[in-house]
Amino acid sequence: MTNADLTNLSVSEITARLTYGTWRFQKNWKPLHVVDAEGCHFIDATGKRYLDFSAQLMCVTLGYKNKAVIRSIEEQANKLAYIAPGFATDVRATLSTMLLEVLPKGLEKFFFTTSGTEANEAAFKIARMVTGKTKIIARYHSYHGSTMGSIAATSDPRRWAMEPAGKIPGVIFAPEVNCYRCPIHHHYPECEIACVDYIEHMIENESDVAAIIVEPVVGTNGVLIPPKEYFPRLRQICDRHGVLMIADEVMSGWGRTGKWFAVDHWGVIPDILTTAKGITTAYMPLGLCATSKKIGEFFDDHYFSHGHTYEAHPLTLAPAIAAINEYKRLGLIDRANEIGAYLGTKLHALKEKHPSVGEVRGIGLFWAVEIVKNRSTKAPFNSYKDKVNGTPLLVDKVAADMMKNGVFIQAWVSHFVIAPPLIITKEEIDTGVKALDAALAIADAEVQP
């Protein structure tokens, strides 16, 4: 293929022809050509505006064109665009100091990456180096990244294509927390949190568990919120058995749940916290692996065997400083609770109206609407296998209808993730919910008695 072969193709066609669309079949991929964005909307090449009801990949937390964040990138580019991570920089010291103020107390040593995936890779390596153990416990219905280590700890269809190589030695899976569809067929609160007790059973029957990695509030796989007893008890279990707790806050951090980080809801301090996305409101690719002071001190006399070229890249650090200041200036952490309650009320009203809605669940500005073909049985319209086999998904049909009406929403197998920018207004929420309300008629028509 030559440039001449592409002359008459559109930007969308060139994109599909020459680049990979992630997590999808490539045939018939027709990506929307986006040319601009501002506030809570993005704009396509025809000038049509779309309300971003999921902050893209739950990451554009401050919305588009935040002037302070943009200015920080410009100023840093003019000052120092890059220096190797072995050097100290003003921006690195400033951000590190600011992180001490917003992270759970006790996390005092930082490794900067360029994605949440890389942050989790760092967490696994650190856990194994510090403990001298090898096994990592993850949970089903989780997502921790796409590189070989992080995908091995992921338990959804995105891992399946990597088997057996994707399942690195030493990763084992525990039941997820899902009180709507409990994987071990219990009912809260009568269950007394049996799912976390099962994790202790796993630790007791495995030889060398280094760490457990959990999303405090599960993201893509359904905004699964644990009962209040879950994390305090998991912390006790980890301490009792010398297992490190890794909190994957890539999606749930930075005010998304109404706290700086989701673990703050339960007063639990992990040994390692990983995050990305909202740390720069996705304007630049930055991830963070934050560890306890105790873990940091271990490497005073032990070799820290990890690193990469773009670690602590100055251009990625500057917007994080600006973003943290903007979260504070705009009062967005508390606002996520206020505006999130408004969104929740609207979404719960949809459940009363639409027989296809099985459950509405959320915290802060992090919500999921799960659709089912039968409320009594909770049977979903589609399965994980449908996703990887290319079977048309009902959630995708609903999302496509919303796009026609100018609202973008993330759909995953049997639910929608609603996590708009934290700056969204009540009027914009009304617009998004109205589009979802209309589109759910598609699902209602497929409900089975």
Work out the strand percent: 15-25%
CATH topology value of the largest domain: Aspartate Aminotransferase, domain 2
N- and C-termini, Cα separation: 53 Å
CATH architecture of the largest domain: 3-Layer(aba) Sandwich
**The CATH C-level class name of the largest domain:** Alpha Beta
Structural class: alpha/beta
Tally of structural domains = 2
Low-confidence stretches: none
Binned, the helix content reads: 25-40%
Can you say what the CATH homologous superfamily of the largest domain is? Answer: Type I PLP-dependent aspartate aminotransferase-like (Major domain)
Strand segment tally: 16
Bulk shape: globular
Count of helical stretches: 15
Query: For the report, how would you describe the main beta sheet?
Result: 7 strands, mixed
Oligomeric status of the shown chains? single chain
Radius of gyration: 22 Å
Explain what this protein looks like in three dimensions:
The protein is an alpha/beta fold. It has two domains: 32-62 and 333-444, Aspartate Aminotransferase, domain 1 (Alpha-Beta Complex); 67-329, 3-Layer(aba) Sandwich (Aspartate Aminotransferase, domain 2). It is 37% helix and 17% strand. The protein has helices at residues 11-18, 55-58, 67-79, 90-102, 116-131, 148-152, 157-160, 194-204, 230-241, 293-298, 314-329, 332-353, 384-389, 394-404, 426-444; strands spanning 34-38, 41-44, 49-52, 107-113, 135-139, 171-174, 209-214, 244-248, 272-275, 287-292, 357-363, 366-374, 379-380, 407-408, 410-412, 415-418. The strands form three sheets. The protein has a seven-stranded mixed beta sheet with strand order 4-10-9-8-7-5-6, sandwiched between helices. Strands 11, 12, 13, 15 and 16 form a five-stranded antiparallel beta sheet that branches. Strands 1-2-3-14 form a four-stranded mixed beta sheet. Helix 4 (90-102) runs parallel beside helix 11, helix 8 (194-204) packs parallel to helix 9 and helix 14 (394-404) packs across helix 15 (426-444). The protein starts with 10 loop residues before the first helix and ends in a 5-residue tail after the last helix. The model has no long low-confidence stretch (mean pLDDT 96).
